[in-house]
Amino acid sequence: MERDAALPFLELVTRYFAQTSQTTGRVSSPLSPVELARRFAEPLPLAGMPLAAITERLEREVFGEMNRLAHPMYMGHQVSAPLPVAVWTEAVIAAMNQSVAVSEMSPSGTAVERTVIRWMCELVGWGRDAGGTFTSGGTEATFTALLAARAACMPRAWEEGVPTDAPVVICGGQAHYAIERAVAQLGLGTRRLIRIPAPNGHMDTGVLETRLAELHEAGIRVMAVVATAGTTATGSFDDLETIGTLCDARGIWLHVDGAHGASALLSATHRHRVSGIDRARSVAWDAHKMMLMPLSAGMLLVRDEQDLERAFAQEAPYLFHRGEGGRTPDQGTRSFLCSRRVDALKVWVALQRHGANGMAAFYDHLCAMARALYDVLGSRTDFTALHEPESNILCFRWHPDGVRDDDLLDTLNLALRERYNASGHGWITTTVLDGRRVLRVTVMNPRTQREHVQLLVDGLAEEGAGLLAGK
């Protein structure tokens, strides 16, 4: 009976994986959100259906209208085309249904998570006191890190709240919106967030040094500096060595938002981009990005695990238990969540299957394809790359011959992206750099090769010609 229930789903996903190396078929749905909503506007089912009918509808109406992340021409957002071995592990995780917040509720799962966290901390360069927890993603990880920074800066804030002379948090101009959200949610207020200019995507360390001196002179406390390893817009890396030195000199908590770029630690070719990350007190790292895990598999790592435990100043003796030396194996003392899946298991399985070197090869390939796109654009006169890729992200701008007006180019670049995506031949994103609309590619699929990068540029040029011709 159980095997009969599994087979229709197994066959559905297997068919999908079998198509992933092909460039045929649409990359995304041509239907509008209204049309898709209409398709599923149905009453609550009162009677069950055969599994074959359900999976047939899944394949036609859900799989058929999704973004095909595993298609070689999908080069959109920072969501991975997940590794098959991790996808199949999802079924194991769901079947076990362990809640990893408490070790007695997930004995082996807790041990696996603690092991994976230890591996990641060792890659950062930290010692035995380091630790951490799995999270839903970088947003939760950064919020939790700043909660720990608040506990270090204002030990009584948990009981008494944030005083009127709240400290400030500093980040770069291209930092993720999660930082501003966390500053607001922690009760500091967004006015206490200071953004340092980030020319070419990198936090200006000279301005940071000057600002820290000014704040010290004015008697304003700095709760944390947040540096970014792999910005969302351009995939750029802040200078962690210099920022770490400045924070060390003033005893300031350094958090590194490495949700996207911390996976460079796996790569001998790209590890230099995160040099100095060991100076951080905390690091956010999303395995569901450059480690190609299915959502979700975020992590928060801390140099001293007790910093994270102090952030959650609560006792729950009916759940959490203290062991030798007052330490607990329970992950719930370090996390917002109680009911939580053993997402660490898919990372553990993927590392068993591919090894750290295999993961590094995936990372290197994704970055190499962004560099290949950069090289293709450099041979053309109708597109301009706006930066050298430091990871797997590249922003560029279409400027057809004879068009010089920047406002018109903004309109044309946005229209080109919409037209190209609607064609079904590929899928990319767009963003704003220095006030101007640009095209943006993120290579998240190991199946994407150099010929696909060339197809992308050729396809954009073809759609651009049609756009200008009014066709």
Tell me what you see in this structure.
The chain has helices at 2-18, 33-39, 51-62, 84-96, 107-124, 138-153, 157-160, 177-185, 205-217, 240-250, 305-311, 344-378, 406-423, 450-469; strands spanning 131-135, 168-172, 193-196, 222-228, 253-257, 282-286, 298-302, 383-385, 393-398, 429-433, 436-442. It has 471 residues and is of the alpha/beta class. The chain folds into three domains: 2-65; 99-340, Type I PLP-dependent aspartate aminotransferase-like (Major domain) (Aspartate Aminotransferase, domain 2), CATH 3.40.640.10; 356-469, Alpha-Beta Complex (Aspartate Aminotransferase, domain 1). The strands form two sheets. A seven-stranded mixed beta sheet has the order 1-7-6-5-4-2-3, with helices on both faces. The chain has a four-stranded antiparallel beta sheet with strand order 8-9-11-10. Helix 8 links the parallel strand 2 and strand 3 (193-196). Helix 5 (107-124) packs parallel to helix 12. The longest helix is centred in the last third of the chain and has 35 residues, at 344-378. The radius of gyration is 24 Å and the shape is globular.
Write a brief structural summary.
With 471 residues, the chain is of the alpha/beta class. It is built from 14 helices and eleven strands.
Describe the secondary-structure layout:
Blueprint lengths: L1 H17 L14 H7 L11 H12 L21 H13 L10 H18 L6 E5 L2 H16 L3 H4 L7 E5 L4 H9 L7 E4 L8 H13 L4 E7 L11 H11 L2 E5 L24 E5 L11 E5 L2 H7 L32 H35 L4 E3 L7 E6 L7 H18 L5 E5 L2 E7 L7 H20 L2
Parallel strand pairs: 2-3, 2-4, 4-5, 5-6
Antiparallel strand pairs: 1-7, 6-7, 8-9, 9-11, 10-11
Helix pairs in contact: 1-3, 4-12, 5-12, 6-8, 6-11, 12-14, 13-14
